[in-house]
Write a structure and sequence with these properties.
single chain; alpha+beta; conserved putative lor/sdh protein from methanococcus maripaludis s2 fold; OB fold (Dihydrolipoamide Acetyltransferase, E2P); 4 domains; six-stranded antiparallel sheet; 25 strands
Length: 359
Amino acid sequence: MKKIYSLILFSAILSFTACNNSSEEKNIDKTPAVLVTVSSVAAENNTPFLTASGKIEAANSATLSTRMMGFVDKVHVNVGQKVIKGQLLVSINNSDLSAKQAQTSAGITEAQAAFNNAEKDYQRFQNLFADKSASQKELDDQRARYEMAKARLEGARQMKNEVQSQFAYVNLRAPFNGVITNKFIEAGDMANPGMPLVSVEGPGNFEVTASVPESEISKIKTGSEVHVIVKSSDKILPGTVSEVSTSAKNTGGQYLVKVVLDKTDASILSGMYATVQFPIEKKADATTVMVPQEALVKRGQLTGIYTVSESNTAILRWLRVGRTFGDNVEVLSGLATDENYIISSEGKLFNGAKITIKQ
């Protein structure tokens, strides 16, 4: 009876082992290998040009504010509206200023009357002094009265000019032909001195302000012709360097270079990002590692690249990248010289995916 039990137990063990082997065979990864194109890292000795990122801005733009405090009576324009030079944009309540203008007008009338009287007295005493009917002191006194009346009249007139100039800050007008790009206030709001109210830009003329590192700024000259790549449309536009900053005190060690774009029919707007290509041969160090931008993988703020393991699988390697030179990016750390990386694939790559290298 014991032999029968042993035989049954041995059969059960064999059956269980066979089932496990069958399960393991099913768990073997049968995912097809991804066909990839591989390149080897090499240190670059020379790149065709230097690039710098920047933002497109209108060459003729203004943000209007006021020197007066008061409630806004009316905003006469909307964002996107075309305006002409001198057109009224914003009206601020000016009742106090109008009262002051009336006071200055009354002051001018009073000063004018006093001046006319003093002028006549002075002329009369000149004639009396010529006939020896008035003393020198009497003539000097009349001259002094005449000069003081003249000075008070001039002061009253200048006061009126000051009040008139202040009206320019309660009735804001377009400084040039353009388009309203922003308005920061509505009717009924309180306008304060220096507070931006509306922005206007002149259409047609654009420029790019790019940041250039200190190691390259000495090679960029005013008047140089450059290419500007508009990132939103991938269009390449010609431009000319108009200004080169000589200080990086307030720009984090980057020098600002201003490029004027040639007139074009391309659809570009203020605020678009662009890349400026300077025709400067950039000598790279012998240890500089360069990879094409198309090979990089973006994961939020992280940048990586797929490398090839010894077992022909894709390994995602995180990198620290530096400057951009055309279509190539400088790798500061994470990738060594002569190391293979994947440029493109004919399927979806992931960390650990089996790959087949295209010959």
